[in-house]
Automatic annotation (TrEMBL), chain A:
<dbReference type="GO" id="GO:0051301">
    <property type="term" value="P:cell division"/>
</dbReference>
<comment type="similarity">
    <text>Belongs to the MAD2 family.</text>
</comment>
<keyword id="KW-0539">Nucleus</keyword>
<protein>
    <submittedName>
        <fullName>Mitotic spindle checkpoint component mad2</fullName>
    </submittedName>
</protein>
<keyword id="KW-0498">Mitosis</keyword>
<dbReference type="GO" id="GO:0005737">
    <property type="term" value="C:cytoplasm"/>
</dbReference>
<dbReference type="Pfam" id="PF02301">
    <property type="entry name" value="HORMA"/>
</dbReference>
<dbReference type="InterPro" id="IPR045091">
    <property type="entry name" value="Mad2-like"/>
</dbReference>
<keyword id="KW-0131">Cell cycle</keyword>
TrEMBL record, chain B:
<keyword id="KW-0132">Cell division</keyword>
<protein>
    <submittedName>
        <fullName>WD repeat-containing protein slp1</fullName>
    </submittedName>
</protein>
<feature type="repeat" description="WD">
    <location>
        <begin position="377"/>
        <end position="410"/>
    </location>
</feature>
<keyword id="KW-0131">Cell cycle</keyword>
<keyword id="KW-0498">Mitosis</keyword>
<feature type="repeat" description="WD">
    <location>
        <begin position="164"/>
        <end position="205"/>
    </location>
</feature>
<dbReference type="InterPro" id="IPR001680">
    <property type="entry name" value="WD40_rpt"/>
</dbReference>
<dbReference type="GO" id="GO:0031145">
    <property type="term" value="P:anaphase-promoting complex-dependent catabolic process"/>
</dbReference>
<dbReference type="InterPro" id="IPR019775">
    <property type="entry name" value="WD40_repeat_CS"/>
</dbReference>
Length: 203, 440
């Protein structure tokens, strides 16, 4: 934990909420939750990434990211979930989960592992974004009108602002299928990505 | 190897030799492969949400705390489709209109007093109609209940051009042709008429709409009419079977209609909160935009940037959106704080004027693309219903249900010495100016 408190650690942690927000942005685009013309392309991590240019959506994500940052810096966060729900029935159709493991201090006797280069970290992040993009090929089409929800798994002692409420985990109720995506890690934490989706029961 | 390679089938061999020679016929190769790949990965993450969910349910039922709280962000994400009329939180945080407006205001003085006021008794207080239009020949047509009056901008004379004979029916829209030689009139009983202002005679009547014709737009010989039932018809006014196309893209009354000046694209706004962009060659909308949350009456094409369209929403929406109609992208948005009843672009400045309803019933002059407010002109006592721009682009006429027709000189041409880029305003207007001052 104290590793996360060092200055360098702070930067990485803060950066990683930014990263998760970027993942959310790409998911919203790739899964077609918002019209494609509301996104603009930027170059980052050696990739062309799409970020929203819609003011309302940007403000919404900003609010979320700010709070996530607080929690993450305090080390109160273990999971971040973007649940894609049907607008009609509110049933969860797709669930993108990012597990955040904050690395513990190495034991005093251990020689600390060589810190990862920034380039290596960026390569891992780019790999996840590529995977999100590629996952469109196996994920079922979202035929209903959909909306999304952001969930976090926080520690019980975390400070919760009034804009956040307790929620159920938004699991997919039936015919769930899961695919584990790649993970990326920095010196202070490791993020695993996972997507669960609903298989239509035509088999 | 032996035991893991053949978990079930392989029985203990009768003879043990020092070499293992697999007996392939007795080994289930596929299951062996599977088991091989599994060995040593006992800590593999369980990839089964149902199992996960079940475990957590059981834990909760037994009162075991998982030491975690699941929290959700309370507010709904911004809507992405048309039906959603909720006012979302997190509206565009553009407060630039207040801060930099003062700086912009000093650049140009705009008269906040009307140049002249005329009476417009009996004007219907209906947001969805389009009852005012100013022709290129300096004739201003206004529909007042059952009659259409034409005010001559040069002489100041007023003539009654036409009247709707059927009791209970009224004029719902007026629109001049581009050269000002004919006036199209839409009525509440679904008739679309063409009148000649010189002879004051009706040229033809094109019936067919089932409900009132509340929006009209000309493109050369094609007259497009928007109807209360949501349909848009193209009438070819030269031929006997006048209806040449029917566009169905709105489910409710069409109240804004405008052809791009080159006649290639038609933009329409409706009471179903949609903006549709139509290619002239197609009868399906090229784009449908659902960002407005109220009826779209204000639809205006930018005169200096061909593919730029501005649309303004009604009382519930209050936004003006700017669209690139080639890529369908939304370029800018501005919250005006009030119902947008019309938008007129200036040909003189990189500016536009929007007219508004409650609470201030004002005219707002905006610069584009900075979207800073150049001026706010309190215009009428009740909402400004219709506006029209004079042929020289300097004066805007506004009419409101307070029965006043007012003229505002908001886009006064720059003095010639300052900038000689712009062409001189037509001499016709100068004479109007002269006479107007003499009359007073």
């Amino acid at each position: 934990m104290s590793a996360a408190q060092t200055t360098k650690g702070r930067i990485t942690l803060r950066g990683s909420t930014q990263m998760v927000a970027e993942f959310f942005g790409s998911i919203l685009f790739q899964r077609g939750l918002y019209p494609p013309e509301d996104f603009k392309m930027i170059k980052k991590y050696g990739l062309n990434m799409l970020v929203s240019s819609d003011d309302a959506l940007k403000a919404y994500l900003k609010q979320i990211t700010l709070q996530l940052e607080n929690w993450l810096m305090a080390g109160k966060l273990s999971k971040l979930v973007m649940a894609i729900n049907s607008k009609e029935t509110r049933e969860t159709i797709e669930r993108w989960q990012f597990d955040i493991h904050i690395m513990n201090d190495p034991a005093p006797g251990d020689t600390p592992a060589a810190p990862k280069t920034e380039k290596a970290i960026h390569t891992e992040i780019a790999a996840i974004i590529r995977q999100i993009t590629a996952s469109v090929t196996f994920l079922p089409m979202l035929e209903e009108k959909c909306t999304f929800n952001i969930l976090v798994y926080a520690d019980t002692d975390a400070e919760v602002p009034t804009t956040w409420i307790d929620s159920d985990p938004h699991y997919i109720k039936k015919n769930a299928e899961q695919v584990k995506l790649r993970s990326f890690s920095t010196d202070v934490h490791k993020v695993d990505a996972l997507v669960a989706y609903r298989l239509d029961g035509e088999l | 190897m032996d035991s893991s390679a053949s978990p079930k089938k392989a029985k203990k061999p009768a003879n043990l030799y020092d070499r293992f020679i697999p007996n392939r016929s007795s080994i289930n190769v596929s299951s062996a492969q599977f088991n091989l790949s599994r060995s040593g990965s006992g800590t593999e993450l369980t990839l089964d949400t149902t199992a996960n969910a079940y475990q957590e349910e059981v834990a909760r039922a037994c009162g075991i705390s998982l030491d975690k709280r699941i929290l959700a962000f309370k507010s709904e994400p911004p809507p992405n489709e048309k039906e959603d009329l909720r006012q979302t939180y997190g509206q565009p945080l553009k407060s630039s209109t207040t801060a930099s407006a003062n700086a912009a205001r000093s650049k140009r003085r705009i008269l906040t007093a009307p140049e002249r006021i005329l009476d417009a008794p009996g004007l219907l207080d209906d947001y969805y109609l389009n009852l005012l239009d100013w022709s290129a020949t300096n004739l201003l047509a206004i529909g007042l209940n059952q009659s259409v009056y034409v005010w001559n901008g040069e002489t100041g004379d007023v003539v009654t051009l036409c009247q709707v004979e059927t009791p209970g029916e009224y004029v719902a829209s007026v629109q001049w042709t581009a050269d000002g030689s004919y006036l199209a009139v839409g009525t509440s009983d679904g008739d679309t008429q063409i009148w000649d202002p010189e002879t004051q005679r009706k040229m033809r009547s094109m019936a067919g709409h089932q409900a009132r014709v509340s929006a009209l737009a000309w493109d050369k010989h094609i007259l497009s009419s928007g109807c209360r039932d949501g349909s848009i018809w193209h009438h070819d006014v030269r031929v006997a079977t006048h209806k040449v196309a029917e566009l169905r893209g709105h489910t409710s009354e069409v109240c804004g209609l405008a052809w791009r000046p080159d006649g290639a694209v038609l933009a329409s706004g409706g009471n179903d909160n949609l903006v549709n962009i139509w290619d002239v060659r197609s009868q399906a909308p090229k784009f449908t935009k659902a960002n407005h949350t109220a009826a779209v009456k204000a639809v205006a094409w930018c005169p200096w940037q061909q593919n730029l369209l501005a649309t303004g929403g009604g009382a519930h929406d209050r936004h003006i959106h700017f669209w690139n109609t080639t890529t369908a992208a939304r370029l800018h948005s501005v919250d005006t704080g009030s119902q947008v009843t019309s938008i007129r672009w200036s040909t003189e400045y990189k500016e536009f004027v929007s007219s508004h309803g409650f609470p201030d019933n004002q005219l707002s002059v905006w610069s584009y693309p900075a979207l800073t407010k150049v001026a706010d002109i309190p215009a009428h006592d009740t909402r400004v219903l219709h506006t029209a721009l004079s042929p020289d682009g300097q004066t805007i006429a506004t009419v409101s249900s307070d029965d006043n027709l007012k003229f505002w000189r908001v886009f006064e041409a720059k003095p010639k010495a300052a900038k000689s880029v712009k062409a001189e305003p037509p001499p016709r207007h100068n004479s109007l100016e002269f006479r107007a001052t003499k009359l007073r």
